[in-house]
């Protein structure tokens, strides 16, 4: 059932750290090549945070840009959610560190854990908080310092990820339909295909755990690939149906930026080739930040304009996946 109130994105922002790591740089670290990485993933380079930059620092830069775009002050925020799988610390939440950095002193703040799907899940959560009347203005951020959790000796994963952050400010009102209903799903039976098995309560920090490199991200890439294509394509179809929108009505599809071959396979399945936004070549997979950065770039470069319908889709560890549709009203 549709909640009565329209909720719109009134500003977006994003940030990637200065340092660029190219495929050629990676070829000096592990046995790989620019040709292999580009042909298998579409990636050319990724940005890597400085040693003294934590996830909340990246998130705060994106948040500041989004607030400026929205034309509001940080103390006008009632809710601040950070979607991340690479928090500054286990606790307190990265969102509380961001609150302090940007001065969002009137917001309540928490992190949301849905791996790479986090930004879309957080958008849906914030939208429903606003639509229910509980809060007026929310800031949703996807932010990751993946480089801290990557095994730089594993060529199967270290080539795939980058650091960055993206943010969106949400408010009730706006012309058009705003953020519409989402279609989301999860399958915990497949958790071991993409996870960081060490460092939590299942496998606590110990010398042995670290010697076994269990504190780094592990992935069975081929399996993840197959599920990502199927789930994202299904989720988009379900979200379009829920909102009474046809694929032909969508001006721009923004998928999770994990691999250009995944994106191309989804585009073919859905018949949307030519209307798909990608930036995976520049940033690689920034997990929960990827969709947020792509949305901000698509808005700023004029790919999406007032009145356009946009469909977004995500997939990540858990497994988690989802899609939503929104009418751009800025
Ligand atoms: O955010 C959501 C999570 N992530 C994803 O959605 C990623 C999903 N998976 C993928 O994008 C792809 O599966 C990868 C890019 C990770 C791998 O591509 P693939 O075409 O599935 O390759 P593969 O894993 O089947 O490996 C093919 C070969 C293997 O060699 P053998 O066994 O055929 O001799 C690998 O050892 O390529 C080898 N390989 C590499 N070679 C050069 C694996 N990584 C590399 C590398 N450079 N970096």
Task: Write a brief caption for the model.
This protein has eleven helices and 13 strands. The chain has helices spanning 23-26, 34-41, 55-70, 94-102, 118-131, 155-158, 207-211, 221-242, 260-270, 280-283, 288-300; strands at residues 7-15, 19-22, 45-48, 79-83, 108-112, 137-144, 164-172, 179-186, 194-195, 218-219, 252-255, 309-316, 320-327.
Rounded to an integer, what's the Rg over CA atoms? 19 Å
The total of beta strands comes to: 13
Helix content: 25-40%
Average pLDDT reading = 97
Distance between the termini: 26 Å
- Side by side, the strands of the main sheet go 1-7-6-4-5
Structure ligands:
oxa(dethia)-CoA
Order of helices and strands: EEHHEHEHEHEHEEEHEHEHHHEE
The dominant shape is globular
Helix/strand-derived category reads: alpha/beta
Please tally the helical runs, counting DSSP H or I stretches of 4 or more residues. 11
Q: Which spans have pLDDT < 50 for at least 5 consecutive residues?
A: none
Instruction: Report the biggest beta sheet as strand number plus sense, adding barrel if it closes.
Output: 5 strands, mixed
Query: What fraction of the residues are assigned to beta strands by DSSP?
Result: 15-25%
Task: Fill in the keyword field for this structure.
single chain; 330 residues; alpha/beta; five-stranded mixed sheet; binds oxa(dethia)-CoA
